[in-house]
């Protein structure tokens, strides 16, 4: 009975986590559906003119749609990592509203940075291998910086400028955190996009947020211990 009870308890815990991840990820995916449709249309674009026409609404929607939705996803991940759900289980939509304004402000900044890097990569792709490599490395740095911003904006209450500075210094301040986020996220995204795209609407975003915030939170705890 003990073994059976333990097995059933384990299965229940696994199913509970699957439900948490999938329901939250589905909410996040639903909020980003307009961007998803535009990106899928981009993949079938016939010429540069069509690409530009489709890119403009993606750029305009990203700050107001993608960033608040993803910040709410990271807020749920923070709740799971810290086990806050055992005390107060807020809904995805509560976190969405709670972090909306700072997420939009971050979205404006980071969308601009991503556009600059993407344009540089596109411009130098055929003319300079070295500069293309430099901007590809910059894109990895910017990706981790963006992830750390999401983790920071849901974890601490600071003015926007300080949130950005804190996220930037955390990105550069820990090679281990940087590598963990870059490698785990890169692996998950490659598997999701190239091998199992069906899991993107159901699990990918939630797993990325959970693993990223877990690494971020361990770093924050370690820093606090060193300061004591």
How would you describe this structure to a colleague?
There is one protein chain. By secondary structure, the protein is mainly alpha-helical. Helix 1 runs antiparallel to helix 3 (48-82) and helix 3 (48-82) crosses helix 4. The protein has one domain. The protein has helices spanning 2-31, 33-43, 48-82, 92-98, 100-124, 129-155, 160-173, 175-195, 200-227. The radius of gyration is 19 Å and the shape is globular. The model has no long low-confidence stretch (mean pLDDT 89). The chain has nine helices and no strands. The chain crosses the membrane at residues 21-40, 52-75, 100-124, 130-156, 168-188, 194-217. Keywords: Membrane, Transmembrane, Transmembrane helix. This is Membrane protein YesL. It comes from Salimicrobium humidisoli.
Domain count: the total is: 1
β-strand amount: under 5%
Number of helices: 9
Low-confidence stretches: none
SSE class: mainly alpha
Helicity level = over 70%
**Residue-averaged pLDDT, rounded?**
89
Number of DSSP E strands: 0
Main sheet characteristics:
none
Distance between the termini: 47 Å
Backbone shape: globular
Radius of gyration: 19 Å
Label this structure with key terms:
228 residues, mainly alpha, 9 helices, DUF624
